[in-house]
Specification:
By secondary structure, the protein is α/β, with parallel strands linked by helices. It contains ten helices and eight strands. An eight-stranded parallel sheet has the order 1-2-3-4-5-6-7-8. Helix 6 links the parallel strand 5 and strand 6.
């Protein structure tokens, strides 16, 4: 890999949110409730965050398109979230693609998937598969919904609707995710938040690395490098360089995307600080490799509908 200067080309932000928790029901955001979160106290993000706020945070970063990821809106109304975000996209020109909510083990999974696929911007769905809450539980034999036959029946419908699956699960469940990717080779599995690598201790990173190696062996798996904050710490290259470099080595730039996870990652750093950190870590890669990571992979996987201002952006 040849040396290169910091990337300055177009960027697809493959993971962000917008919301109005006082207007709509997000059980974890609306009201005074605080649920356990890997970043700790997330009170500062329990506020409206709209496209104008996103653009203000991203000012100075060459964002050409964005991908909205479901934000745990009221699970009784998954289509309502997609309808709301689609309306924001029409009005504001972003987001340019949507990862929608779908509970794959529910009786209405088929109906919900068909409904989500009917929206023009929906490319994928997400459902955090509850299950093993620690490495010890995995060692004791506990599995997640990824191994539940009813949930898998819902997952099997994704191919019919041309939908990907965005997976967010702790690192200790990644080997199980690799089995899921193996069993459904025609469905693209998008690993969120770098596989949630945890506290960066040598023992944790060794377990995370093993899971990511298993996933990398499956050609239908891609990874979003996002959500890398550590509770109580500012985002730093030192904390994240090994994680990012490992992902790039295992998957290659054609299977890696970058995401801001804003506004949530704003708890630990500014938008510019996070993306500048990513650029610095990736700067040893060639210009073509950097372009693949920051632009081409997201373009291929999420097929964003570019706004009028960005229609002149290159497509390859």
């Amino acid at each position: 890999m040849s040396g290169a200067e910091l990337y300055t080309g177009p960027i697809i932000d493959a993971h962000h949110h917008v919301w109005e928790p006082r207007k709509h029901n997000y059980p974890w955001l609306s009201g005074a409730l605080l649920v356990p979160h890997r970043y700790g106290d997330y009170t500062p993000v329990k506020r409206d965050y709209l496209p104008a706020d996103y653009r203000r945070d991203a000012e100075g970063v060459n964002i050409a398109a964005t991908v909205y990821v479901e934000a745990e809106w009221d699970p009784a109304d998954p289509l309502g979230e997609t309808r709301y975000v689609s309306g924001l996209a029409r009005e504001h020109g972003l987001p340019n693609a949507i990862v929608a909510q779908a509970w794959l083990h529910r009786d209405d999974a088929g109906e919900v998937l068909a409904g989500q696929a009917a929206f023009g911007l929906v490319r994928s769905v997400r459902h955090k598969p509850e299950g093993a809450a620690s490495p010890a539980e995995v060692a004791a034999g506990r599995r997640t919904l990824m191994s539940d036959e009813r949930w898998r029946s819902g997952y099997a419908l994704l191919e019919r609707h041309g939908l990907h699956f965005d997976l967010q699960t702790p690192w200790w469940n990644l080997a199980e995710a690799a089995e899921l990717a193996r069993d459904f080779p025609r469905t693209t599995l998008i690993v969120n938040h770098a596989g949630v690598p945890g506290d960066r201790s040598p023992e944790t990173l060794a377990g995370w690395r093993a899971g990511m190696e298993a996933l990398a062996a499956r050609p239908n798996v891609v990874v979003k490098i996002s959500g890398l904050c550590l509770p109580g710490r500012a985002w730093s290259v030192d904390d994240n360089a090994e994680v990012v470099a490992t992902i790039l080595r295992l998957f290659g730039p054609q299977r890696v995307m970058f995401g801001s996870n804003f506004p949530v990652d704003g708890l630990c750093a500014s938008f510019g600080e996070i993306f500048d950190g990513f650029r610095r870590i990736a700067s040893s890669w060639s210009p073509a490799e950097q372009r693949a990571m920051f632009w081409e992979t997201g373009l291929r996987i999420y097929r964003p509908e570019l706004s009028d201002a960005n229609r002149g952006m290159p497509t390859a």
